[in-house]
Write a structure and sequence with these properties.
Layout lengths: L1 H20 L8 E3 L23 H4 L4 E3 L18 H10 L15 H5 L8 E6 L4 E6 L2 E6 L2 E6 L15 H10 L1
Antiparallel strand pairs: 1-2, 3-4, 4-5, 5-6
Length: 180
């Protein structure tokens, strides 16, 4: 594990050094992220789950963005984002409009990256054949269906997805199920 982290760190350093040597480090958007949560030996604390789960430990990953010429260092955001957002963000950063015949699934994150206090409200949806999983995020609320059992979590108060609010918030559960 430590060897992998060392190699990854060296590789990222090599990329950033190459950008600096080319004089492109100030005006290049660099993103470091992952496609999904931790594998079976990962510690995703305080989140539950990992790869193959639609629990937060299986879908929530950090991302690091570097673009010194446009994005201030040290910012953090609680923006709900998904990997498909990077295509829209890269196109916007390049000043290119997406082709009208191929609508994008993601949104441009530049407004949030430039102003981390902003948030773009949206819903996100996931599905996975393994264990017949479905999930939806709307703000701080998460709908999860796992092998036919339904759950509703308020992630602002319960990041570990321990308190199923489905019975107490039956109307919200029904609304999110229908939206899904």
């Amino acid at each position: 594990y430590l060897a992998m982290v060392r190699h990854m760190d060296e590789g990222i350093g090599n990329i950033l050094q190459a950008l600096a040597r080319a004089g492109a480090d100030e005006n290049t958007l660099v993103v470091f992220t992952s496609d999904n949560g931790g594998e079976r030996f990962s510690d995703t604390w305080p989140l539950k789950g990992g790869k193959m789960d639609l629990l937060e430990g299986g879908i929530r990953v950090p991302y690091i963005v570097r673009w010194p010429g446009r994005i201030a260092a040290g910012g953090t955001t609680s923006q709900l984002a998904i990997t498909m957002d990077w295509v829209a963000t890269f196109l916007a950063a390049a000043g290119v409009q997406p082709h009208s015949d191929y609508p994008l699934d993601g949104i441009d994150l530049l407004p949030v990256l430039e102003h981390p206090e902003r948030r773009i409200e949206r819903e996100l949806y996931w599905r996975m054949k393994f264990r017949d999983q479905k999930a939806m995020r709307s703000g701080n609320w998460k709908y999860l269906s796992l092998e036919g059992s339904e759950f509703l979590f308020d992630l602002s108060k319960d990041t570990r997805e321990r308190a199923n609010r489905a019975k107490r918030e039956a109307e919200r559960l029904a609304q999110m199920r229908q939206m899904y």
